Amino acid sequence: MTVTRRPARSASRKTAQSLPAGWLATLPELKLLVAEPGARELQACSHVLVLFPADHLASGGIPTSLPCAEALRETLARRRKKPAALCRKPAGGGKMPVPALIPEATLAGGGLIRWLAVNLDESIFLRQQALRDALAPLLAETPIRVDIVLHGPPAFVGDVLADVAYVGCANRVSLPKTVRPDLPVKSTTRRKTESAAGTLRFWVGASVKASLRTTYAATLDWTRCKAEANLLARSLCVLPPNQLTPGSFRAQIPVLIKGSGIKVEVYDIQRLKKLKAGAFLAVAQGSPEQDAAIVHLSYTPKTKSAPHVSLVGKGICFDTGGHNLKPARYMAGMHEDMAGAATVLAVIRAAARLRLPVRLDAWLALSRNDISPGAYCQGDIVTAMNGLTIEIVHTDAEGRMVLADTLSLAVKTKPDVVMDFATLTGSMTVALGNRMSGFFATDADYALQLAIAGEAAGERVMAFAMPDDYDSALESQVADVKQCTLDGEADHTLAARFLNLFVGDVPWVHVDLSAAGCKGGLGAIGTETTGFGAALALQFLRDLAK
Known about the structure:
By secondary structure, the protein is of the alpha/beta class. It is 33% helix and 18% strand.
């Protein structure tokens, strides 16, 4: 029997559904206190975290100068623990790692105080994870104010301030919950001087020179923008698919970038048809709303001869798998398949606010992968924007299809490097799990820079090779290339080889976001939705601009 596929309906005239009121939280205020808190100040605090160098425990005792040192000694004695228990023991000698003890006590005024010994020799990832564990019970009580005492020399304060501020900022606020968008969000009454998310105060010692104080203040500004980028990426990801559609995503962009100097250009369905973007349109044609688009954001700094970077993000607002329908277990959570686009939007927004001396183009590939009579099928042959014909092998390999044409657009601006972010393959998750993300790069220098940025940001990445002999698996008898294979073997590598056909000779980095979601949180972030990639990309751009 011959079946004629119905053409996709024209774009809906309905206004895109509004997002919940207050869906994007406001971060806490950060205050720098150039002082050492005395007993009286501490008794007036409700939630306190004391940070000090782990090497201060080398003598085997608790330093007498440590804030509330006697209370810490009494707490350790009650638990029959030695000061050495305050330090994390790494794996070795056939034993598993032992986390650091983070003791707590009640202050005379009723406040909660905790202590953390920070080992500066450990990785940033482990340091941020320890700081999250230390802050979690304090932040869980949603206090108006948290006081963080950095007890140590200026070198220690300078190393730890950015990490604790980032962890505190990112975890102080909650991600949005689904509420009726036509109803206002209830808010608690606070004094005008208080932020809705409260305040984080950082005590950095009394003997701080003016130049160092300026450095610390700049550190807090950078950290808050980085935390804001991570929060935006996570908040977009957790919105339900009936609220965050390609249309409502696009509608939020002007609001989010207002006053930043970022310019917007939209390649909607009609414009993409004129450009013959067949790879992107093959995926978009399955959605009745026809609200898919490639959104181009651009930021140009005042600095002349700034490096030029194009960021590309996969933005599949819901992925059914198409005609190769996902089973329920694997379709759950597919509203977060737009994590790459959320990351890219968050990064260019933060970079503009920070006025990073980097010229940026951001390309958001926004669509849904729906199943419908108009959706693309196995066996279809489509022509991409660059003229390559593609044999469709699996409709659930839609990410590489929307990225193909988006990358073709990105390289036309002739950037120094193109970097894309995408929750692209399950095989990368099989390879690495959810505790780090893998990446591919055509340029060794950029690969090294990204790995270094990952270490500095506390977002771990691992480089994968993509030798060209893998291309033989993508040879097609009826088109220039196969979209993928049905074997599933090394699909992360095959996806990279496929995408490599659309970047030409421009240096290219592809980040497969296997760490976009991790149960129990990851590193600095305490939620399952991690916002992975925002801090990584900002660090990469910051290092590139030096």
